[in-house]
């Protein structure tokens, strides 16, 4: 380790999943050096990176204060960080019941939100031909996930444990893409899912999250 920070974070400047990790590292006050891989030249598939993450995706971290311990997959990284470094359980649960409540929402995010939002983004922006049926399917899935969140957040401020936890934080990057227009110019996040919009607004106001989003915006501006 030459940069002197506790963690090396392998990320992508615009891909949503690594920003979950940035947000939590910021909130926990943990130091890191980010390496933003360039997908267009295949850095995420390079042999040296596949030794770190055999799946060739981001994020991945190396914890230099724990014998260069490697963790990949965003959900696993979030759990590693809160279980090892959130000693006051500020962003995690203190009881068994709350722990499983946090975990169920975290697992829903990684299996239910991320993949569907990702496919909606793919067919909106990146797919070489327009496929209205595919776009409609995944946009409807985004709305379905938002509906699940709305059904809970109309009754409570946070998803689990009665406080802001890593479960809430995990949803922020992809929901921010909705706020930025993932579902098109005619969709109003605030109007159609008001409780979820308010919850998201609270999340992005946390200092570590806000700082991460500002950095993401800065990196995007540099790229253009």
UniProtKB/TrEMBL annotation:
Residues in GST C-terminal domain copies: 95-223
Protein family: Belongs to the GST superfamily.
Protein's name in the database: glutathione transferase
Catalytic reaction list: RX + glutathione = an S-substituted glutathione + a halide anion + H(+)
Enzyme's top EC category: transferase
Residue ranges annotated for the GST N-terminal domain, each copy included: 5-89
EC number, as in UniProt: 2.5.1.18
GO molecular function list: glutathione transferase activity
Protein purpose: Involved in the oxidative stress response and detoxification.
Domain of life of the native organism: Eukaryota
Keywords for this protein: Transferase
GO cellular component, one term: cytoplasm
């Amino acid at each position: 380790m030459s940069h002197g920070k506790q963690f090396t974070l392998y990320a992508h400047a615009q891909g949503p999943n690594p920003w979950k990790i940035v947000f939590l590292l910021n909130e926990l006050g943990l130091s890191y050096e980010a390496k933003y891989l360039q997908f267009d030249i295949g850095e995420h598939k390079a042999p040296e990176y596949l030794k770190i993450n055999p799946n060739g995706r981001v994020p991945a971290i190396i914890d230099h204060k724990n014998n260069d311990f490697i963790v990949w997959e965003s959900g696993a990284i979030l759990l590693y960080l809160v279980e090892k470094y959130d000693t006051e359980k500020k962003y995690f649960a203190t009881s068994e019941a709350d722990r499983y409540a946090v975990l169920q929402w975290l697992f829903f995010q990684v299996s239910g939100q991320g993949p569907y939002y990702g496919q909606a983004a793919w067919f909106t922006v990146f797919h070489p031909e327009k496929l209205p049926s595919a776009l409609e399917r995944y946009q409807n899935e985004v709305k379905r996930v938002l509906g699940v969140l709305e059904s809970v957040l109309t009754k409570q401020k946070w998803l689990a444990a009665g406080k802001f936890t890593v479960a809430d934080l995990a949803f922020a990057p992809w929901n921010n893409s909705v706020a930025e227009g993932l579902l098109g110019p005619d969709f109003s996040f605030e109007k159609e899912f008001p409780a979820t919009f308010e919850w998201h607004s609270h999340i992005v106001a946390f200092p570590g999250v806000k700082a991460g989003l500002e950095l993401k915006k800065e990196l995007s501006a540099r790229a253009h």
